[in-house]
Amino acid sequence: MKLGQKLFSVLIDFDTGKCEMETWIVRTIRGEKITAVCKNSFTWVKLSDKNFDWGWAKTIDTTWRNTWGYGKAPPELKTTKRLAWKAIKDRAEMYKKSCRFMEEDICNTVIQTARRMIRKE
Fold first, then answer.
1. Which residue, 29, 47, 60, 121, is most buried by CB atoms nearer than 10 A?
2. CA 40, CA 70: separation in Å to the nearest integer?
3. What pTM, to 2 d.p., does this model score?
4. DSSP codes joined into one string, 41-72
5. pLDDT tens-place string over residues 12-26
6. Residue numbers of the domain that contains 115
7. CA dist., res. 25 & res. 42, Å (int)
8. How confident is the model at residue 100 (pLDDT cuts 50, 70, 90)?
9. Rounded distance, CA 54 to CA 46, Å?
10. Is 1 within the bounds of a domain?
11. In this structure, what is the dihedral angle of CA atoms 44, 18, 93, 115, given to the nearest 10 degrees?
């Protein structure tokens, strides 16, 4: 891990089967702790109307921060978009087999979306 490194995760809406890619940026590495922040409209904001400059918000809610120990990255954060899509496809296939969390048609939607995005990457 290094400062500024991008990590990716995919969120699933369990009601509709829609998938959304999230980008996480490693912001700090202090000793054995690494903190990444999700880059979205709540964390990446317009800082000045005059200068048209953008940057990180002054305060970022814990919802958008993820901290872990060195070498113990959360399993949902992947180093490439392709790996994130593959992980979500595998998880949806597991849910489909075990009939947990998602209905079969939603699982199929997620699997199709993930396959399409894997080919695209």
1. 60
2. 25
3. 0.78
4. TTTEEEEETTTTEEEE-SS--GGGEEEEETT-
5. 887 788 888 999 999
6. 6-120
7. 14
8. low
9. 4
10. no
11. -80
